[in-house]
Structures are given as structure tokens and as C-alpha cells.
From TrEMBL:
Known catalytic reactions: GTP + H2O = GDP + phosphate + H(+)
Entry GO terms, CC: cell division site; cytoplasm; cytosol; membrane; microtubule; mitochondrial outer membrane; mitochondrion; peroxisome
Family: Belongs to the TRAFAC class dynamin-like GTPase superfamily. Dynamin/Fzo/YdjA family.
UniProt superkingdom: Eukaryota
Protein name from the UniProt record: dynamin GTPase
Cellular compartment(s): Mitochondrion outer membrane
Annotated signal peptide: none
Residues covered by region (Disordered): 532-597
Domain GED: from-to ranges: 669-756
Length: 756
């Protein structure tokens, strides 16, 4: 290898794959030149780069660090643009230097972003200007670096650093501690282990006094990354030579010393090209009596070769790490790819199987969610089947329980119903007819909660259906949407029949009022309840009336001297009492027979029906007689009562004034109200039991059993497969990216294998 450019193809290939693989750069070492002022540092860098662009000369020229970043670009890079009209002709200077084709190589300064310098003479001018701008015109130095990037297909991605020379005596604007300042500035760069130090010493100064070697030894005591460069071999006193140094006899450096001859001040003034200088340098060594034998290990070309080797070694050292990293990346990417369903594109033949598989999985998920056998059962909230049972047992059950069966029925309503069912003449079975008339609409109160129950279960099934997807299905959003659509349609379709069945069920309960239901409160029981309630109230009333009477007698005694009080005690009682008037006592006694008869009739009527149903002769059984006895007993109790306003125990507050309500009417109303509550309770219990069964049968189980068939019949069609299996776009992109990455990584592995 003769120049740094020889590494370009390998490094580029490697860096390409590494870039694709998202691995950080190879992190190639940085080259820094250090040495005393005018020792030839800038000259060396220039020759290594193969371009004239650095300010060189006597005195302190380099006064700010120059960070020179070489960036390799492809020869066909779109970055490379054609000559503009103004630049149609390369400058005369460039043409003279044979750099007419330099359009693919340019420099850019960090402080002048976007401006391309195709003319390297201009670059040098800009470095000088920029140096003066920050470091002043009078030999001042600055630690702020100038950053220059060179873009070219002919350079290696490498960073070179030109540094100010080590100086001892402050001159011009330099501060008294200039030596320390420069030293620190240099150390900032060369102390980094990634820095290869080119320690420059001019041959015309005694090596023992070499400032660069001293400084390099401070940061690289074992000389692992220091290359000694001896310049100005052409300027040695005649009769002396640097053979000892170059042969490593004088100063031990692991990487050795390289002797070079740069362009002299005169060469610079004469604009001697890099190529000419290199040729002359080679000639110098091959003809020099002292260096002739070692000429192949002398000169700038050899220095470049040495650097190449160091860089290559560096790359090789890093390769195992890169390879390991690549392997990890390959593993990860393969895994990611698998999560996207692998790299294999689905063949038309395998589509059917795939659709069927996804479909089955979806149907299974739907069913198992309902059955509560799903593998990913949530512990946070009730879902699926459990939620459906919750709807039945809690939501529906409670909404039924909360219905007050007579809340919307006033005593007036009941009385009106009784009167209407009586017609023009009083009927013996009046209460039963009225009861029938009144209880039917009440049963309708059960419809709303029942329909709500259907809806809640339907909504829950919808929710389940939307959560039946799987990771594999996410890859095919169209298929997923269709699966959901078909199941949603099925559910919607079943909603109607379920609702109408539920409606029918309530209608059925309204169609026939079965007063023979064994749990239905008998008139006897109802009467007993009423009588008991009245007795209680009457007792209370009597107690309070006695109290009043006693008090009045005391008052009368006390007022014995005055006018004697006459007539009945006041019929008025406290408002919280239910007693109204003692006059009603007379009313009761006025027609006890009629009351008794009508209730007996009602009672008999009902029991007679029962008897008929049981096919028993219409004579009183023992049981009946016992019941009769108790009834008469209660009646007797009742007859003794004062008229009482019926105090509602459950609901339906009685209006305060019912002057036209007869005792019989009141009793009938209360009786009917109690019977309605009893009957409603029976129907409610049945509805609570039947509605969930109906919902299960018409909606839940139906869909559970039908879902698979429905999916197959709607979606398992050859003509649909292609569309159904259209992949999610982003997922397809991710997968494509994965495949590309994987290819890149594998290619990189091959390249690494070649270099190793
Ligand atoms: P720097 O200050 O270390 O960067 O040194 P420069 O590269 O600016 O060189 C300082 C001066 O020494 C310039 O005039 C160069 O032409 C001259 N020079 C550098 N190297 C050599 C060399 O090997 N031989 C001769 N004859 N002159 C050299
Ligand atoms: Mg310099």
C-alpha cells in the first residue's frame, strides 16, 4: 500500500454496511501532528492528503488547531454537482497543478456552512483569514479549532489534526505563559488514546532536544501510538545524517521513525506540486549514500503505508466487536421479522389456509370469552361471560326489584277500576274483575328492564367481538375488520328476535292472570293482613282517644264550677292519627251484612274456582271451613272497628280526603292493592328467571354456535382472500425494512470475514 487511499475500498464497504446496520462509525484513530515551530508539520499533512491547502512557512503559521475531517463520498454521489456557469473553466492555477478535474473534491468550513471551496488555494486563504479573525494578526494563538471538512471519493474517512508548534519564547501578542498554553492545547488532542501521534522533529536540530518526542512520551509512555517523523533531512549539515535515528538506534519507538523531505520554502514559492515533491523525495532517498539502503523505509509514501497498516490493525482489532454486535443485531432483527409474520410472502395457495386459521382463532376467542375460558382473563374488571352473568344477577335483578308495582296506581285509580268493572249493577265478583283489569298494565312495567337487559348483553357481546383479535391478526387489518363486521352483523341480527321474544314473554304474562298460582296471596290471607293492620291502628287510635277523654274529664272536673260541658267528645284527632270520625261507626253498623256478603262472595268465588280446577265437589272441605271460621272471626273484629283510612304500608300514599269512598270501597281498594303486589311479585320472579334464559337462548348461545358457520359462509371465499390478506401498510414497511437490514447485516458479516 502506497498511500492512505488504498484502504478506501475496504473501509468504505465496511462503513457502508455499518451505517446500514446502525453501528457507530469504525471510530478510526485521529492523526495529530506535533512538533516545534516550523518543523514541517503542516507540510507533512498536506502531502499525506495529497493537496496544497495548508498555510505553511517560516515563523508561527499554524495558530489555531485545524481539525481536518476527510469524508469519503462515492464517485457517483449526488452530492457531486456539475460546474456552474461561473466555474465553467477551472482556475488557471488548478489547471497548472493538474487539478482541473477537482469538481468531485471540495472543502467546507464549519464556520461557513453550505459554502463549497473547490479551489484549495481559497481554502488556504480562508484558513489564514479565520486564524487571524480569532487569534489576531500578530502571532497570537487560540485554542478554538478551525473545522474543515474535505469531501472526495479519493480520501479515507479520517480525521487529521494540524496543531500550532511548540514554542518557548513569547513573541508578538503571545502571553508570557505561551509555552504552557500551547502544551495544554496539544495535550487536549494527543492525550486521547484514539490519537495517533506524528511526533515531528527536524533533522537539523539535535533529537535530544526534540520537544515533540518529550511531549509524546508524556501521553504515550510506551510509544504504542507515536510515530517519529524526521523532517528536513535535506537540510542537514553535509557529512552528517540521521541514519541512527531512523534505524531506531537512538531513541526507541515501537512504531519507529520515518524520515521525510518536504517541500522547502523555495518550493512553496515556486508552487511545486505534491506529485513533484514526492518524486523528488523518492529520488533523494534512493540516491543518498546514507539512506540508499533503507530508502524503501523512508519518505512520505512509506509514512502513509505505515499509517495504513496502523489503521488496518485498528480496524481488525475492532472487527470481533463489530461481528458480535452484528450477530446480536441479526438475532434481534430475525426475531422482529418473525413478529411481523416472517419474511415469507403468503403464496396464493396458502391464503385459504391462513384465512381459515385466523377465522377459527377469532371464533374460538369469541366463544371462550363468553365461556370465560379465555387464556387472558382480565383481573381488573369483569369481562366476557362473567360480565354477562353480572348483568343478569345484579343489574337486571336489581332493576326488577326496584320496581314498585303500585307506585303509579292511586286509590282513585283502583276505585275507578272497581266502579267500571261493576257496571250499572253491583257485581258479586267485582274485586276480581278490577284486579284483573289493574294488574295487567302493571306487568308491563317489567318490559323496560327486560329490554335493557337484552341491550346490555348485546353491548357486552359487541365488546367481546371487538376484542377477539390476536397479534397475528393485527397484521391483516382488513381481515380483522371483516371478522368484526360479520360477527357484529350476526349480533345485530339476533337483537330483533331476542327483543321481540322478550316482549312476547311479558305479553304472555299479561295475557292470562293466573289467580290460581299457588304462591298467589289468597283473599283470606289478604283480608287477614288488612284486618291485622286495622286492629293495630284501631288500638292506637283507641288509646289516644281514651287519653283525650281522660284529659277532658279532668278538665271538666276542674271547671265544675263553670258551665258544664255537653255533647260528644271532639271527633277531631291529631293529624297523625288515622281516626276520622265516630260517625262512621254508625255507618259500619248500618250495613254490616252487605259488606260481609260481598267479601264472602269474593272469597267464595275465588275458592270456588280453585275447587273446580281441582275437580272437587263444591262442598266445604275441613280446610275451607277452618278458613271460613277464621275469616268470620276477622270479619267480626273488623265490624267492631271504626272506619279507618287505609294507611299504605308499601307505597301509594292515600289522599287525605275521600269523602265519597265507602268503607267497602276502601276495603276493596286495599285488598286489590295487596293482591296486585302479590301477583306482581310472582310474575317478577318468573320474568327474572325467564329473561336471562331467553337472552341466552336467542342471543348468546345462538351467536356462540353460529359464529363459526357465519364467518365461513361470509368470508371463506377464494375471491376475497387477496383483499382480506392485504397487510397493514406500516407493518409491511417495517417488515421490508427488517428484511433489508437483515440482508445488510449478513453482507457485513461476509465482508468482515474477508478482512479477518
Ligand atoms: P510547521 O510550522 O511545523 O507547520 O511547518 P511548516 O510545514 O509550515 O514548514 C515550515 C517551513 O519549513 C516551510 O517553509 C517549509 O517549506 C519548510 N520545510 C518543512 N519541511 C521541510 C523539509 O523537509 N525540507 C525543507 N527544505 N524545508 C522544509
Ligand atoms: Mg504548521
Amino acid at each position: 500500500m502506497a498511500s492512505l487511499e488504498d484502504l478506501i475500498p475496504t473501509v468504505n464497504k465496511l462503513q457502508d454496511v455499518m451505517y446500514d446496520a446502525g453501528i457507530d462509525s469504525l471510530d478510526l484513530p485521529v492523526l495529530a501532528v506535533i512538533g516545534s515551530q516550523s518543523s514541517g508539520k503542516s507540510s507533512i499533512l498536506e502531502t499525506l492528503v495529497g493537496r496544497d491547502f495548508l498555510p505553511r512557512g517560516t515563523g508561527i503559521v499554524t495558530r489555531r488547531p485545524l481539525v481536518l475531517q476527510l469524508n469519503n463520498i462515492k464517485a457517483d454521489s449526488p452530492l457531486i454537482t456539475a460546474y456552474t456557469a461561473e466555474e465553467a473553466e477551472p482556475t488557471l492555477e488548478n489547471r497548472l497543478r493538474g487539478q482541473s478535474g477537482a469538481r468531485d473534491t471540495w472543502g467546507e468550513f464549519l464556520h461557513l456552512p453550505g459554502r463549497r471551496f473547490y479551489d484549495f488555494t481559497e481554502i488556504r486563504g480562508e484558513i489564514e483569514n479565520e486564524t487571524a479573525r480569532i487569534a489576531g494578526k500578530n502571532k497570537g494563538i487560540s485554542r478554538i479549532p478551525i473545522n474543515l471538512k474535505i469531501y472526495s471519493p479519493h480520501v479515507l474517512n479520517l480525521t487529521l489534526i494540524d496543531l500550532p508548534g511548540i514554542t518557548k519564547v513569547p513573541i508578538g501578542e503571545q502571553p508570557p505563559d505561551i509555552e504552557r498554553q500551547i502544551r495544554n492545547l496539544i495535550l487536549e488532542y494527543v492525550a486521547k488514546p484514539n490519537c495517533i501521534i506524528l511526533a515531528v522533529s527536524p533533522a537539523n536540530v539535535d533529537l535530544v532536544n526534540s520537544e515533540s518526542l518529550k511531549l509524546a512520551r508524556d501521553v504515550d509512555p510506551h510509544g504504542k501510538r507515536t510515530i517519529g517523523v524526521v523532517t528536513k533531512l535535506d537540510l542537514m549539515d553535509s557529512g552528517t545524517n540521521a541514519w541512527d535515528i531512523l534505524a531506531g538506534k537512538l531513541y526507541p519507538l515501537r512504531l519507529g521513525f520515518v524520515g521525510v523531505v518536504n517541500r522547502s520554502q523555495q518550493d512553496i514559492q515556486e508552487n511545486k506540486s505534491v506529485e513533484d515533491a514526492l518524486a523528488r523525495e523518492e529520488e533523494f532517498f534512493s540516491k543518498h549514500p546514507a539512506y540508499r539502503t533503507i530508502s524503501s523505509k523512508c519518505g512520505t509514501r512509506f509514512l502513509a503505508k505505515k499509517l495504513n497498516q496502523i489503521l488496518l490493525n485498528h480496524i481488525r482489532e475492532k472487527l470481533p466487536d463489530i461481528k458480535a454486535r452484528l450477530n446480536t443485531l441479526i438475532g434481534q432483527t430475525e426475531q422482529e421479522l418473525a413478529s411481523y409474520g416472517g419474511s415469507n410472502i403468503i403464496s396464493p395457495e396458502s391464503r385459504a389456509g391462513l384465512v381459515l386459521q385466523m377465522m377459527n382463532k377469532f371464533a374460538t376467542n369469541f366463544v371462550s370469552s363468553i365461556e370465560g375460558t379465555s387464556s387472558d382473563i382480565s383481573t381488573k374488571e369483569l369481562c366476557g361471560g362473567a360480565r354477562i352473568y353480572y348483568i343478569y344477577n345484579n343489574i337486571f335483578g336489581n332493576s326488577l326489584k326496584s320496581i314498585n308495582p303500585t307506585a303509579n296506581l292511586s286509590i282513585t285509580d283502583i276505585r275507578t277500576a272497581i266502579r267500571n268493572s261493576t257496571g250499572p249493577r253491583p257485581s258479586l265478583f267485582v274485586p276480581e274483575l278490577a284486579f284483573d283489569l289493574l294488574v295487567k298494565p302493571q306487568i308491563k312495567l317489567l318490559l323496560d328492564p327486560s329490554q335493557r337487559c337484552v341491550e346490555l348483553v348485546y353491548e357486552e357481546l359487541m365488546k367481546i367481538c371487538h376484542n377477539c383479535g390476536s397479534p397475528a391478526l393485527a397484521r391483516y387489518p382488513r381481515l380483522q375488520a371483516k371478522l368484526i363486521e360479520v360477527v357484529s352483523d350476526l349480533l345485530r341480527e339476533r337483537l330483533g328476535p331476542t327483543r321481540s321474544y322478550v316482549e312476547s314473554l311479558i305479553d304472555i304474562h299479561r295475557a292470562f292472570i293466573n289467580t290460581n298460582h299457588p304462591n298467589f296471596l289468597s283473599a283470606t290471607e289478604a283480608m287477614a293482613d288488612i284486618a291485622e293492620a286495622r286492629r293495630q291502628k284501631q288500638q292506637n287510635a283507641k288509646r289516644s282517644a281514651d287519653l283525650k277523654k281522660k284529659r277532658q274529664q279532668e278538665l271538666e272536673k276542674a271547671a265544675a264550677v263553670g258551665e258544664p260541658t255537653n255533647g260528644n267528645p271532639s271527633p277531631k284527632v291529631d293529624s297523625d292519627s288515622t281516626i276520622t270520625s265516630s260517625d262512621s261507626e254508625g255507618e259500619d253498623e248500618r250495613d254490616p251484612k252487605q259488606n260481609k256478603d260481598s267479601f264472602l262472595n269474593y272469597f267464595f268465588g275465588k275458592d270456588q274456582q280453585r275447587k273446580d280446577g281441582d275437580d272437587i265437589a263444591p262442598s266445604f272441605s275441613d280446610k275451607q271451613e277452618r278458613t271460613m271460621d277464621s275469616f268470620f272471626q276477622q270479619e267480626a273484629d273488623f265490624m267492631a272497628m271504626e272506619t279507618l283510612k287505609i294507611q299504605d304500608t308499601v307505597a301509594a300514599p292515600v289522599e287525605a280526603e275521600h269523602p265519597e269512598l265507602t268503607e267497602r270501597e276502601e276495603l276493596e281498594c286495599e285488598l286489590i292493592r295487596r293482591l296486585i303486589i302479590s301477583y306482581f311479585g310472582i310474575v317478577r320472579e318468573m320474568v327474572e328467571d325467564q329473561i336471562p334464559k331467553a337472552v341466552m337462548c336467542f342471543l348468546v348461545n345462538f351467536c356462540k354456535e353460529e359464529v363459526q358457520n357465519r364467518l365461513v359462509s361470509k368470508l371463506y371465499k377464494e375471491s376475497l382472500f387477496e383483499e382480506l390478506l392485504m397487510e397493514d401498510e406500516t407493518l409491511a414497511q417495517d417488515r421490508a425494512k427488517c428484511i433489508k437490514l437483515l440482508e445488510g447485516y449478513k453482507q457485513a458479516s461476509v465482508i468482515i470475514g474477508d478482512i479477518l
